[in-house]
Amino acid sequence: MTKKNRIYLYVALLIGGGVLFNELRKISIADLLQELTELKFSWLLVAIGCMLLHWSIEGKIIQGLLKRQQGDFSFKNAVRIPLIEHLFNAITPFSSGGQPAQLLALVKSGVDPGVSGSVCLMKFVVYQVMIVLNFVACIIFGFRLISHELAELSYFVMLGFLINVVVVVSLLMLMYCYPMTNAIVKFVMGIIKKFVRGPRGEALELSVFEKMTNFYEESQYMRREKSVMRRTFALTFAQLVCYYVVPYFILLSLGVSQVDVLQIVIFHAFIILIISLFPVPGGTGGAEYSFTLLFGSFIAVTSKLVVAIVLWRIVTHYIGILLGMLALFVEPDLPKAKIALVKKSAPELM
C-alpha cells in the first residue's frame, strides 16, 4: 500500500466517520436502539444483495468485453475490478482514482495494457450514455417532485445532468465527427498554451491528442461490435437499477412501507448525480444532505431518517470500500510464472 493511497483512505474514512457520527448525534441512544431492535433484517439483506448484484453484473460486463481477446478471464478476476474501482473512487476527490485503478487491476490480472484500456473505455462510454438516458427519464417523470419544494437541490441536479451531457456529447463527437473535434481541440489547446508555455504546454498538447487518437481508434471497434455493445448496454441498465433500488429496501427494513418504488428510484438517481459534484471523497456530506432533503419529506420520524442515512451509506459505500480492500489482496487466477511477470511489470495499486 503506497503512502499516498493510505493517506487518501484514512482521510476518507475519517471524514465519512465524522459525518455519520454527526448524524447519529441527532437522536438519543434509546431511539437508536429501538430502531435497531425493530429493524427487519431480511429487507436489509435484500438491499445488501442488490449492491452485491450491482458489482457482480459489472464483473459480467468486463468478462463480456474481454471475451474476444481473453475468453478464459474468470469471473473471480472480473468481479475484483469493480470492487477495486469503487474503493479508489471512494477515497479520491471527484472519484478520480477509480478509472486508473481498474486499468492497473486489469493489467495485474494478466490483460494486455492496450486491451485493458479498450475495455475501460468501452465500459466508461456505455455507463455515461446510460447515466444520461436514465436521468432524462427521471427528469421527465420525477423532476416535478423536487423542482418546487427543493429549488436549491434541483439546480444541483440540473448542473450534474448538464456535465454528464457534455461528457457524452464530447465522446460521441470524437466517435463520429473526429476531424471537426480535432480542429476544435487544436483551437482550444492554442489558447491554453498561451498560459501554459514551454515543455509543459507541449507535453499537455501531445498527451491530449494521443488520448484522442486512442479513443477514436477504440471507438471504431465499439461501433463494429454491435452485439457486444447491446449486451453491455442491457447489463449496465440492470446494474444501475440494482443500485437505484437500494434505498427502497432500506426503508422497508425500517418499517416505512407507504412508499412508491419508482419515486425512490428517481430520488436515488438524483442523489447519485448530486454526489458526483462534490469534491470530497465519496461525496461525503453532500450525499447525506441530499438524502435528508429528498427522503425526509416522507420519513416523519427523525430517528428513522437518521438510521436510514447511516444504513444507506454503509450498504452503498462502506461495504464496497471493505470489499475493495479485500479484493486488492486476492491473487488473480493466473499461472505462477505469469503472476511473477505481472508483478514485475506493473506497479502496486496500494
From TrEMBL:
Catalysis: reaction(s): L-lysyl-tRNA(Lys) + a 1,2-diacyl-sn-glycero-3-phospho-(1'-sn-glycerol) = a 1,2-diacyl-sn-glycero-3-phospho-1'-(3'-O-L-lysyl)-sn-glycerol + tRNA(Lys)
Family label: Belongs to the LPG synthase family.
Enzyme class, first EC level, given as a word: transferase
Cell compartments where the protein resides: Cell membrane
InterPro entries: L-PG_synthase/AglD
EC identifiers of the protein: 2.3.2.3
One Pfam family matching this protein: LPG_synthase_TM
Listed name of the protein: Phosphatidylglycerol lysyltransferase
Record's function text: Catalyzes the transfer of a lysyl group from L-lysyl-tRNA(Lys) to membrane-bound phosphatidylglycerol (PG), which produces lysylphosphatidylglycerol (LPG), a major component of the bacterial membrane with a positive net charge. LPG synthesis contributes to bacterial virulence as it is involved in the resistance mechanism against cationic antimicrobial peptides (CAMP) produces by the host's immune system (defensins, cathelicidins) and by the competing microorganisms.
PANTHER family per record: INTEGRAL MEMBRANE PROTEIN, PHOSPHATIDYLGLYCEROL LYSYLTRANSFERASE
GO CC, one annotated term: plasma membrane
Organism field: Vagococcus allomyrinae
UniProt KW keywords: Antibiotic resistance, Cell membrane, Lipid metabolism, Membrane, Transferase, Transmembrane, Transmembrane helix
Superkingdom, natural source: Bacteria
Predominant localisation class: membrane
TM segment ranges: 7-24, 39-57, 124-147, 153-178, 232-255, 261-280, 292-312
Gene that encodes it: mprF
GO molecular function terms noted in the UniProt entry: phosphatidylglycerol lysyltransferase activity
Membrane topology category: Multi-pass membrane protein
One GO term of the biological process aspect: response to antibiotic
